[in-house]
Amino acid sequence: MSGEPDGGVRLPASLSGVEAVQSVRTPIRLEYDFRPSASAQSYLRAYAERRIIGHRSPVDGAVFIPPRGVDPRYGVAISEEVDLPDTGHVGNFCVTHLPIPGRKGLEVPYVSAWIHLDGAAVGFLGLVRGCPHDEVRIGMRIRAVWKPDDELEATPENIRHWEPTGEPDVPLERAGNRSFHASRPQTDGNTGGNADA
Amino acid sequence: MREVAVVATALHQVPALTDTTEVQLMVPLLNAAREAVGLTQADIGFTCSGSSDFLAGQAFSFVQTLDAVGAFPPISESHVEMDGAFALYEAWVKLQIGEVDTALVFSYGKSSPGSLRDVLALQLDPYFLAPLWPPAEAIAALQARLLLEVGIVGAEELAEIAVRSQRNAVGNPNAVRSSREVTVADLMAEAPIADPLRPSDLAAESDGGCAVVLAAGDRARELCDRPAWIRGIDHRIDAHGLGTRDLTLAPSAALAASLACTAAGLEVDSLDLAELHSPTTSQEAILVRAFGLGGSTEVNPSGGALAGNTLMAAGLMRIAEAAGRIIDGRADRALAHATSGPCLQQNLVCVMAGD
Question: Domains in chain B, please, with CATH?
Fold first, then answer.
């Protein structure tokens, strides 16, 4: 960085020989005060009553969870809430062998799964426990394991994890999002994903 | 040049969206704009949006907002981390290329969950200015001080600009600050927030969104009885460093307006109206001079951005307000302006005319 005659950067004499600045530290922090949308508020409050709420599309009846107030396929507003059961199947999963830094009570390996509730068109994320990790499979029937009633709050953390029910598996070709054909509104009454109806 | 027009607009602006997500804000606006010209998303050739992760507080927040569009089967889509007016420019280029005949442009801003002044500090240079966290009104006040000291503008003129905005905004359902009765004396009596700027010199903060449908040539004529033809559009940028600029001037705004008017073949004094995206009265005074506005040109008939400055959408709203007045026959020739960055650093000018 010293002055060079060929048009390079030329420092004033007062800066000759000083230590070069190697880096600049600029702490940046922004704070937000978010308020959940009306549909998210319903969803969170329902958890305190051991209920799980979805949104039913006015286009073809497909049920979305969590409820976001919109059918994203068509850009159509949704206001119809539906109660979903706390049973479903594993639509997809992975087994993780690395701990999450700072998170206690989560032994490795653990199984993250895409949970497809009965009657829902799409899945959402949950932990599967209650069986050896190498027995978890796509299509495995599961149910929610809730916290005790006196510990319930308005949070999805009320569901500690999901455990196998022991029922027969959902066939692979009907498990998870693969059973949900978003491009074609379905007319046969199957709203997609509801493989056990 | 291919003829391209604004054929439909929809906008919504309130002081704060509390229980409404960006997606829920945009669903009715996008539907209103498309339905105004009988289109569904399947008829749209290209979709482009403008928004900021710094407002949403999450990375790639625009992807989530695509839920509002109806983006399945997959659509041709793009996004700019800029005001929606610059998204409109990208869509205009796409239409010029001739790949598509229709485009949907939208933008939105929900700044109420965070601190707008802190967000705006982060657009400054990260080594010397941003670490000082200067509030946006203080940066703007440095510019206003220069204007007053040099004698380009008087304090009374700033108050007159604020009064005009508040009066014009009466009856505009999307204005968040309006008043039929307010006087220059009232505003001159306000205590300054960042001397010499008083509360009424600063644009009212708001949340909101805007959607615009563009169409080219005969497609525009099919869709709309009186399209607002974009006859000239240009955007230019001044230096980022505030110390390197003469803050009493906005050369990039002047150049963009000059080029847009030349492309349109219009003299500035033939414009019926100008919608200016001025975050402060002092910046509006600079823009009026940079564009050479005067005489019969009505400035900010909607109240302008002073009546509601939704970050990321206020510029597109200026285009929508101006185009709407051409589409419904209230105006024949209009200029719309959008700005971004500190002290009018980046400027876009869109000159539109009816048949």
Answer: 4-115+205-223 (3.40.47.10), 116-201 (no CATH), 230-353 (3.40.47.10)
Number of structural domains found in chain A: 1
Side chain identity, residue A161: H
Is residue A23, in this structure, part of any structural domain at all?
Answer: no
Domain of residue A50: give its range. 38-182
- Please state whether beta strands A124-128 and A110-117 pair in parallel, antiparallel, or not at all (unpaired): antiparallel
| Minimal Cβ distance to B130: which of A26, A39, A76 | A26
Amino acid of residue B231? R
Containing H/E element for B10? strand B4-14
Cβ A69–B24 below 8 Å, yes or no?
yes
| Contact predicate A67/A81, CB 8 Å | yes
Q: What is the complex's ipTM, to 2 decimals?
A: 0.85
Q: Name the residue among B329, B322, B330 with its Cα closest to residue B351.
A: B322
Residue with tokens 């569904």: B40
| Interface mutation vs chain A, best among B17, B27, B75, B125, most A CBs within 10 Å | B27
Q: Average pLDDT by consecutive 10-residue portion of chain A (197 residues)?
A: 57 84 87 91 96 96 94 92 97 94 89 96 95 96 97 96 97 79 43 38
